[in-house]
Design a protein that fits this description.
Layout (H helix, E strand, L loop, with lengths): L3 H5 L6 H34 L12 H7 L3 H23 L14 H14 L7 H31 L1
Length: about 160
């Protein structure tokens, strides 16, 4: 469970804003986890039944073959979804690393990337999606503030 302290440690939020973001995250996280899990289960089931293999005797085999997704693509989508679910869990626990040399923690950029990726695999009929969109909007605004601060810092460094 994400805490206000973990969000506040990023240095990008007042404590009140950190509490608000942590609350939004904690409401959306179970939904995000469920969406990712259902997507993974669906991809695994598709691979298991070899959905990309088309019976040449099928009356519409040519049309089906034109729209079939190759096995390699399906396995890649599955791997990305599994990594996304892992990243969401790490962000929730405050142990996510943006790169191998960074300390584990919660980052606005990492959370925003993960939520955007989750929205890409979600369905419009996914239950509880409103909480994920609220979180995405808040993270988008926070990422905008972070990027402005980074830009300002780089401009100051260029002047030196």
């Amino acid at each position: 469970m994400l805490t206000a302290e973990l969000v506040h440690e990023t240095g990008h939020f007042s404590y009140a804003d950190a509490e608000h973001l942590a609350d939004l995250w904690n409401r959306a996280y179970p939904v995000m986890r469920q969406i990712a899990t259902l997507y993974i289960e669906g991809q695994r089931a598709y691979i298991e039944r070899e959905g990309w293999v088309i019976d040449p005797a099928h009356p519409h085999a040519e049309v089906l073959q034109a729209y079939a997704i190759p096995e390699k693509k399906v396995r890649r989508k599955l791997k990305l979804a599994e990594e996304l679910r892992r990243d969401l869990g790490q962000l929730d626990r405050g142990t996510h690393k943006m790169c191998t040399r960074s300390p584990g923690g919660f980052t606005v950029t990492g959370a925003y990337m993960a939520v955007r990726n989750l929205l890409n695999i979600s369905s419009l009929s996914s239950e509880g999606l409103a909480s994920v969109f609220r979180l995405a909007a808040e993270l988008a605004e926070a990422e905008d503030r972070v990027n402005k601060a980074r830009k300002k810092w780089h401009q100051e460094q260029e002047k030196k």
